[in-house]
């Protein structure tokens, strides 16, 4: 079962306030019956009983129906007078993450009350919160104040590994930062800061200023990752487990600062070009790099105090209300000049969608849009599609992209791309520099696959259920997962029409399930599934999935 709410920690104060409101809703619970949910709350790290933990029981069909209790001194809890049904069981305590029953990432096992199901011997394990802290130090070992520390998290979404900016913090007077509470996982750190003593002449053509200015002070700190490297590909990962406290210090080293000129901004443009670091994940909203900016003349801006490196330059729109443009640049030379009204500094691609149709539909849905997602997870804008099926997007960085589609209240998927004389199955394309014309074929992807997992004829709870497409390596984002509930049932939502194999794996949550070679070992004992376009209603599997050992 997917969790209804995100995997977050609720403060004890918020929980107490929530508890008052939830207690008032007790009278709305389902009619009393003979079923009970009983168990004990323990720490996932060491198994100790947790007293005064708050436990919530939520009716899956009607989330407004909620009950809560506090555990006793021996960690036990009980809900009685329950009707037959399906419930989400969740617990929280100060110093621990809010955790659902048998939770794995965003999945958990629902408690199902009914004849023949044991709901009175449950163990709810809460994960102790992890902490990541440290100091940012300069080249002399002194603390760096007001440094911007960005925390990135490695995630696997729909079979595709991505790195996303998760949180940001600023260093205090001791150069210290702290991120808490954190869930177990793999993280990265990046620091951007400016030397306190740095001085940057704002006009390189001014010989007097350049002579009087000691260039030893005209320096900057490059964006630095944990592992003390400015290369994002060499950033050291930080693995956090339940309850870990990891100290991670980062040391900054100054480099000569660059002075740049940006030409070509329209004279009526509101705003100025900004530079954001480029490297890990989707960083379109990252904090701008520290530097000094001034307008030299209408349409021309000078930026000084910038270290060499790769950046996203944010170019403001030329008209009121016009969205800014994002371009990738590599800054290597001092006094470098860049044109903002051309793509001379980067060979970009312009995409024209010349036709589009949805299988089984005569007309395109209203509000249809596309967006392009790169391998780093960067979404390149929403592109509206006209009623005739055409769309355009300019100044896209060349490279590999997934083309994703959507519309209000409906999900669509690209199943094939026609590029010139090439017919490309799937939704991925490698965009070359220059212009490219594409024709897209879509399907409405709203199918829901339902089933039950069994182990030797009995319902198997807590299994990882994976729906694997026919070509998993080329369609990783079409992989769907769920976790079987106490009665062995599962639901796989938003399944794109196509051919699949469904498998159920016992304790498979630590497998690299996004790797096709790992899943291949289980496909021979899985169940074939074909989801046809325009299917109405759920698709039940004809026979139970047999649980496979990891």
Helix content bin: under 10%
> How many strands in all?
44
The second-level CATH architecture of the largest domain is Sandwich
Strand residues, percent: over 45%
**Morphology:** flat
| CATH fold-level assignment of the largest domain | Immunoglobulin-like
**What is the CATH superfamily label of the largest domain?**
Carboxypeptidase-like, regulatory domain
CA distance, first residue to last residue: 20 Å
> Would you identify the regions where 5 or more consecutive residues have pLDDT less than 50?
5-32, 342-346
Could you report the average pLDDT, rounded to the nearest whole number?
84
What's the total helix number? 3
Helix and strand composition category? mainly beta
Largest sheet: 9 strands, mixed
Count of domain modules = 5
CATH class of the largest domain: Mainly Beta
